[in-house]
Amino acid sequence: MTTQELLAHSSRYIMNTYRRFPIVLVRGEGPWVWDSEGKEYLDFVAGIAVCSLGHSHPAVTAAIRKQAETLTHVSNLYHIEPQIRVAECLVEHSFADKAFFCNSGAEANEAAIKLARKYGNEMMDGNRYEIITMENSFHGRTLTTVTATGQKKFQLGFEPLPEGFRYVPFNDIAAVEKAITEKTCAVMVEPIQAEGGILVPDDDYLRRLRNLCDDRGILLIFDEVQVGMGRTGTLFAYEQSGIQPDIMTLAKALGNGFPVGAMLATDAAAAAFVPGNHASTFGGNPLGMAAAMATLDTILTGGVLDNCKAVGAYFFDRLRELKGAHDIITDVRGRGLIVGVELSIPGDAIVSMAMENGVLINCTNGNILRFVPPLIITRDHVDRVIEVLDEVMRLT
Length: 396
Fold this sequence. Notes:
This protein has 13 helices and 15 strands. The chain is α/β, with parallel strands linked by helices and 396 residues long.
């Protein structure tokens, strides 16, 4: 089919849940993708922080191919060898003692919410089920995770929403302390608010949250679905805070494009789950675990984290130069290779014009350009993006 025919069929047969750009991407390699007409794009979206090793990474591709030839799926009624290896790797490189596998970030956060409630209701004093989350947060699209999300625009039309969530401003310890009641079981927070506009908290914010949770005897949950797996320059974003959560969620880059989610927890928190409490048919299946193991191996041994820090610092320097040349840029923020550029104007037109010039970027929250490229990008790739942005901004 021609591109126009593909677009027409997409409109005819696929539910209208995305405002899609009028291109059809058909192939990818490293940080590059090509559309159905053969046009090349430098991809600084990476599936929204998913393809951190780039598209069709040879190690991940080989692992999926080998596993597909061996065993694609069995039930979690049985032990699964690749799942055991991924769980061991995640535990040995994190605060956690146990792992639970699923298929997406929303599922991982759903599992974390269930675990926290189960812990609160059975292992704390009294009936404790409320979770404090942050305004402007994003935790997923299931009914429960969209309720945990502190943004009304994602909740409209889905009322009545499940009870049990209280919202406070991000980066405000006093507000969290005030919101804690005898029903509170946990605080849930993104170490960096991604969908909310790449908002980085004060350096001591997560530490003070940890201390507050310890003082009040409640759990601390980190949602690292978008900022984990090397995105900030360390395997997990929490490592840069000097403290550890009780529960952490992962997804997106964990499988480098293969749908994989995980919830990690300490033994104390994980003990609240017993057989029959929670499950996932496809969670931790051999194919997904093969992709995850290859991804983890490459991030941990392939110089990816060092590259993220070095190229990320270079990207920030170039963006600050760009800010000096264009008054519409009001802020540059982020960490590693999760970067936000705040504009004084809506960002959609800049995204579209960049795409026309062969660069894929994203806009979130209306006026924040979000850059979450593969962690393998080079300075040359950064220079190309800056060149296009400079050209596009001169035309706005």
